[in-house]
Amino acid sequence: MGEWVESLLDKKMGFVEGENQFGATVNWIVNGKLIKGNATQHTLIKLGDKLKSEDLNELIELSLLTKDEEWFVALMDRLKQQKEGEMAE
Fold first, then answer.
1. Which of 13, 27, 63, 88 could staple 72 via S-S, CB 3.0–4.6 A?
2. Rounded distance between C-alpha atoms, residue 43 and residue 88, angstroms
3. Which ranges in 1-89 belong to alpha helices (H)?
4. DSSP code at position 1
5. Is residue 17 located within the same domain as residue 39?
6. Is the domain of 44 the same as that of 55?
């Protein structure tokens, strides 16, 4: 749960809210809004550490628009870790 994914069907990004035997409930980011939907596992690519700083900045913006403080803090922590990793290279 909470893993970032991309749809193989239409390339939209989102995060998994829950999973069951049929697939996953995903919160898709579409035109700057969160839209809940379902997807089968074979139509999803797990993004893992593939999110770039630009992606994280856009998600941070969205977390502010949705007033999701917990998500904002998690994204900021991830961005900070990513930037520290880039500086160490």
1. 63
2. 35
3. 53-65, 69-88
4. -
5. yes
6. no
User: Could you tell me if 24 and 18 are in contact, meaning their C-beta atoms sit under 8 angstroms apart?
Assistant: yes
Which H/E stretch holds residue 11?
none
**Bridge partners of residue 24, in order along the sequence:** 19, 39
Q: Total domain count for the chain?
A: 2
pLDDT tens, position by position, 57-78: 888 888 888 888 888 898 899 8
Spatial strand order of the sheet with 13-20 comes to 33-39, 23-30, 13-20, 4-7, 44-46
**Residue-level pLDDT at 87:** 72
Pair (24, 57) in one structural domain: no
Look up the domain containing 59 and give its range.
51-88
In angstroms, how far is the first alpha carbon of the chain from the final one?
Answer: 30
Same domain, 32 and 58: no
Predicted confidence (pLDDT) at residue 48 exceeds the cutoff of 80 = no
Q: Are residues 8 and 44 in the same domain?
A: yes
